[in-house]
Amino acid sequence: QLQLVESGGGVVRPGRSLRLSCAASGFVFRTYTMHWVRQAPGKGLEWLAFISDDSAKKYTADSVKGRFTISRDNSKNTLFLQMDTLKPEDTAVYYCARGGVTMLLPPLDIWGQGTVVTVSS
Amino acid sequence: DIQMTQSPSSVSASVGDRVTITCRSSQGIGTWLVWYQQKPGKAPKLLMYSASNLQGGVPSRFSGSGSGTDFTLTITSLQPEDFATYYCQQANTFPPTFGPGTKVDIK
């Protein structure tokens, strides 16, 4: 069964860090590109970051560039999002999603259930 | 960045109605357009890619069209399970921006 399961969300104070994980199963993780997308409460979807299958290529949204870092461990079938210097506006549900095998860009065909990050003092 | 707009922002419809959602990009993106469906409290679900290609398992009452800057998602004969928010996303260049969404609710 194709599955992505996020973890690592929680309540964190402004300025602190958090690392999200996304465990993949049911497909050959190392051959797929991966993305992170978030959704603030009551708002739309915001694309955050991309990583190629071999980690050679990475792209990050300007809104989080310099604070968020995407990475992956193909030996553990896991995607990560390191979030530093968190701000209240980073409060959202964070989704990991599977991209294509050769395509860098969407569509995103498999999504995790999301993990909630709340940044508040 | 490419800006995506959608209209209407919300639509009230009845079961059996035909619903059309429009998505526009601020610059030409060919047919690099993706549609997702999202229900409350759930992750988005891929409906369509390359503007008009139905994702496997998606009912044929969903169809997509368009190229360049103007795209449409049409749902013929709306079903109860179709009440949701629909997002378009351009897949032409990074960052792959989303539209603001169109909520389809029950009249």
How does this model look, in words?
The complex is a heterodimer of chains A (121) and B (107). Chain A is mostly beta strands and 121 residues long. Chain A is built from no helices and 11 strands. The radius of gyration of chain A is 13 Å and the shape is globular. Chain A starts with a strand and ends with a strand. The mean pLDDT of chain A is 97. Chain B is mainly β and 107 residues long. Helices cover 0% and strands 49% of the residues of chain B. In chain B, the strands form 2 sheets. Chain B has a 6-stranded mixed β-sheet with strand order 2-10-9-4-5-6, with no helix packed on it. Chain B has a 4-stranded antiparallel β-sheet with strand order 1-3-8-7, with no helix packed on it. In chain B, a hairpin with a 6-residue loop joins strand 4 (33-38) and strand 5. The termini of chain B are far apart. Chain A binds chain B through residues 37, 44-47, 50, 59, 61-62, 95, 97, 103-109, 111-114, and chain B through 1, 32, 34, 36, 38, 43-46, 49, 55, 87, 89, 91-101.
